[in-house]
């Protein structure tokens, strides 16, 4: 039996991956699990929680899934992409999908552009139509500085395990990502020792499973996961 573990991003929740989760459940008979990281979800309470708890949560979910299935696929969004990579590198998996993975930190220039558009929409009375507002307004005032530091620690702890990944890997990245620069994928290609498959979406922002390209994004992930597994060779390190 196949099991899929989907991991949401920092300050987010399972809703960030809902279109993909629903498609997987509709198209397959796989066991699909989407844990909520401590302090996350629509009712944010991040302050008491640490990056260690987030890592322990996904490790426990992985172990629980492993006891029930023969094949494990890992899918992670943003910080969840790094957590999924950590699991693949440390414990192994049959396939790995990283959606807008936060290999680096915030792209403040593009984030400023999104906030500027949000302000403009508020002025002209279209705030409720603004995509960024719809999915981030509930977080206002609920993200302590301490939690941002825990996010940074989470990325730093998980990053070294990327070099141990031998799992077939697909990375999907929006070119208009307002939080994570699309150039981070270049760093991932250097970190992960096998050839990874990468798809860029010209108009997609950070919330890649909820934006205008969600149908093609979800379709690409489902198609990748349903294809037969072909193990990739580890890239040779050039002699110096």
From TrEMBL:
Q: Where is the active site?
A: 78, 177, 206
| InterPro entries cross-referenced by the UniProt entry | AB_hydrolase_fold (IPR029058), AB_hydrolase_sf (IPR050266), Esterase_lipase (IPR012354), Hydrolase_4 (IPR022742)
Give one Pfam family. Hydrolase_4
A cellular component term, taken from the record's GO annotations: membrane
Per UniProt, where does substrate bind?
A: 10, 79
Which keywords accompany this UniProt record?
Hydrolase
Care to name a GO molecular-function term for this sequence?
A: carboxylic ester hydrolase activity
**Residue intervals of the Serine aminopeptidase S33 domain:** 4-209
Key word Hydrolase present: yes
| Superkingdom of the organism of origin | Bacteria
Identify the PANTHER family for this entry. Answer: AB HYDROLASE SUPERFAMILY PROTEIN YCLE, MONOACYLGLYCEROL LIPASE
The protein depicted here goes by the name Carboxylesterase
**What is the species of this protein?**
Halolactibacillus halophilus
């Amino acid at each position: 039996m196949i099991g899929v573990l989907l991991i949401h991003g920092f300050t987010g929740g399972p809703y960030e991956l809902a279109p993909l989760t629903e498609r997987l459940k509709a198209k397959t008979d796989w066991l699909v699990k989407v844990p909520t990281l401590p302090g996350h979800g629509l009712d944010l309470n991040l302050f008491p929680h640490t990056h260690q708890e987030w890592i322990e949560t996904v490790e426990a979910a992985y172990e629980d899934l492993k006891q029930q299935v023969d094949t494990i696929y890992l899918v992670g969004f943003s910080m969840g992409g790094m957590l999924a990579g950590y699991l693949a590198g440390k414990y192994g998996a049959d396939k790995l999908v990283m959606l807008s993975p936060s290999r680096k930190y915030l792209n403040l220039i593009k984030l400023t552009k999104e906030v500027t558009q949000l302000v403009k929409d508020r002025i002209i009375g279209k705030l409720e139509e603004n995509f960024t507002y719809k999915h981030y307004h509930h977080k206002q005032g609920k993200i302590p500085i301490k939690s941002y530091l825990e996010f940074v620690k989470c990325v730093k702890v998980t990053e070294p395990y990327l070099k141990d990944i031998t799992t077939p890997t697909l990375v999907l990245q929006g070119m208009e990502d307002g939080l994570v620069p699309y150039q981070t994928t270049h760093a991932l290609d250097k970190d992960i020792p096998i050839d990874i498959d990468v798809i860029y979406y010209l108009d997609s922002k950070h919330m890649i499973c909820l934006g205008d390209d969600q149908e093609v994004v979800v379709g690409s992930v489902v198609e990748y996961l349903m294809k037969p597994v072909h193990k990739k060779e580890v890239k040779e390190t050039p002699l110096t």
